[in-house]
Amino acid sequence: MNHLAIALFLVLIAITLYITYWSAKRVKTTTDFYAAGRQIKGWQNGLAIIGEFLTAAAFLGIGGLISFWGVDGQIYSITWFASYLVVLLLVAEPIRNSGKYTFADIVSYRLDERVIRPLAAVNAFLISLMYLIPQMVAAGALSKLLFGVPASTGLVVVGVLMIIYITFGGMVAATWIQVLKAMILLCGAYILAFLVMRQFHFSINALFAAVANSKDLGTAWLEPGRWPMVKTPIERLSLGFTLLFGTAALPHVLMRFYTVPTKQHAQGSAMWSLTFMMMFHILTFIFGLGAAVLVGNKVIKALDAGGNIAVPLLARTVAGGPGTLSGELFMAFLVAVAFITIIAATSGLCIAASSAFSYDFWFRVIKRGQQEHAGQVRTARLAAFAIGVLAILGGLAVQHVNVAYLAGMAFAIAATANLPTLIFSLYWKGLTTKGAFLGMLGGALVAVLCVVTGPAIMGKNALFPLNNPGIVSVPIGFLLTYLGSVFTQDKASAVKFRELAVRSRSGLGAES
Amino acid sequence: MSTAVPKLKPKPDLRVVPDKWAEAYESATFKEISRKRFSFVIPALLSFSAVFLVLWIIQSMFPAVARYRVYGYVNVNFIYTMAIFPFVWILGFLFVRYIRSKVYPLERELNRQFERGPKQ
User: Fold this and answer.
1) Do A502 and B30 touch (CB under 8 A)?
2) Looking at the 3D structure of chain A, how many domains does it have?
3) Residue A341, domain extent
4) Residue A406 lies in a domain
5) Tens digits of per-residue pLDDT, B9-40?
6) In angstroms, what separates the C-alpha of A226 from chain B's closest C-alpha?
């Protein structure tokens, strides 16, 4: 299996390297580097967006979660999917209409750029890096599990490939690799679901009956409330809330809407991503419950307590079983796809982090928007390279520590610190620079504090009771921004609001 | 042009000359665009939140309802969860259709009114 999986992985890598080579010739300007020259069609961007979101966590994680704990794992599927409706309704078009490359473009539009842009850039940089490092660590752990190579080797390979893609191919390569990955991932998922359901004569009830009557499982797998993480109602609400609203402020997701030519395409691409996300997420219960019945969750747990191997093992079982060519081949294919998934996801994060540094911080703040074109592209490439190296070193340093909470922290900061400023910027005239400053800085501190004093780090002695702080921290973020704005004055922001409102809602004067 | 563009009275305390953006902002066309957008987005977000809230209430407060089997082993919890997918998708689809048929024509009109582009 190892050799087959590695061979398939190498084939896919060869394709992605060719995409990078092809893209590199097309990256001449900063718009090419950060926004793929605004040439990406709606459906392509739709695939690229789901590429950003169908990480290994969605592909391997949810299946594993459901196989261990039952249908509670579906909470990730429905909220991640539905979070795109929030994006579509509130931010997709406004972002395309009124920004240039990054999240900071929107929030610093009305406000004092010298204050807000560096803060937004630091937030975007930290969020992307916090998300990136656990992905790198997961890549290492998975390569050990799936390919049988040392974790540090896997981590370095992923990091180096990410650096190559982004440094040479920028957003063009990142986009096309996401498109490729999303397509093969969807195909793989549908073949797997077909093979699983064939075992149950394409009857959901037969699959459920098998779960209910299995000696290791039972009807509890089909009912909510088994998973300890959402045992209390408030934990369940908070997890759902954070996932639903956090997505709408993730810098690497927002950045995707700049790659399309017009607002219609931005809206269309959010619709396409909604469609593709639905196509994937309606299948996750089949993977999880299928693996629990056909592979057995004790077998899965014995191999990997995290459950990430459930889906590949299920693939081998339903395609012919261990030792058969078809079984090993299909498992190898899914393993290779999972790996490409991780590399593509890390690439998207890398470009978001590098744009926060090179565009927002270096070009707009340090150089005050005065730098020649070639210089800007050079800084962007250098930043991507440096962030890649930083992510590899960071990943290697913490690979033996459980850093899964970092991703949760990234989500919490996005939802608490960035979402209020983003929404108020677009829709509330009263927002002031000081209010946004208080909301972004205070929100980030509150989010970090909640996670650091929460159960993920302090265990049973946690001062803050919730694993996911969203339900508490997001309202605090909104409140801080609101209060900070009500008690201060910002005439320029109020005047500029009219311009941003017209631009964002009507597309008048949009960057093309 | 059917929609009149009311003249903006400059507020002296702002000490800002009303520019074209302000003019566009105060125009009847733009007000209609905003009104039309919000009249979809707000009910959509409310109904969307309500659907999730009901799921949460069923799952955490009425486990007997969640467990209730409708067909074979297929229970209320599963049916409700799976129904969220088409619900959300249809809401998104209706939004895109609504914006394209009701709002984009107004936006084109606004663009015509300020066709040389507002000054930066």
Assistant:
1) yes
2) 1
3) 2-506
4) yes
5) 444 333 344 577 888 888 899 999 999 999 99
6) 11
